[in-house]
Amino acid sequence: xxxxxxxxxxxxxxxxxxxxxxxxxxxxxxxxxxxxxxxxxxxxxxxxxxxxxxxxxxxxxxxxxxxxxxxxxxxxxxxxxxxxxxxxxxxxxxxxxxxxxxxxxxxxxxxxxxxxxxxxxxxxxxxxxxxxxxxxxxxxxxxxxxxxxxxxxxxxxxxxxxxxxxxxxxxxxxx
Length: 175
Known about the structure:
This protein has 175 residues and is mostly helical. The protein is 55% helix and 0% strand. The chain is built from three helices and no strands.
C-alpha cells in the first residue's frame, strides 16, 4: 500500500534490467537474500538507469495492490452475477406461477359452466314424480279405452291371429 498505482503503460510498470540473461545452470542450494547492487550505466542499454532493491520491492507491492484490486472487482462482479441470476430465477418462477394461475382460471370457468348445466338438469325427485305420473296416466288411459270400447284404436297384438279361433264362414246365398 504505497503510492497511487501507475498505469500499465507507465515507465515504472515493468522494470528494465541492466544485466544480460544468465544461461548458466541454476544452483539449487538455498541462497541468502542479498541486496541488488547497482551496476554502472555503461553496462546496460543507453539511457537505462540501475534499479535498487527498494524500487523492485515497491514495484512488487504495487503489482500486489493491483492484483488485490482486480480480485476485489472479480468478487464484486461475481456477487452481482449471482444476484442477477437469483432475480432471473425469481422472475421465471413468477412467470410459471402466472401461467399456472391462468390455466387454473380457465379450468375454473369450465367447471363453473359444467356446474350450471348440471344444476339445470332435473333432480331425482322430479324424475321419480314423472315416472309415477306416467304410470298412472297409462293405467287410466288403458281403462278408458277398454270402457269406451275403443279397442280398435289399439294396435293388434302380434300373436292375436294365431290364438283366436277362426271365424265361421258365412253361408253364401243360394242361387
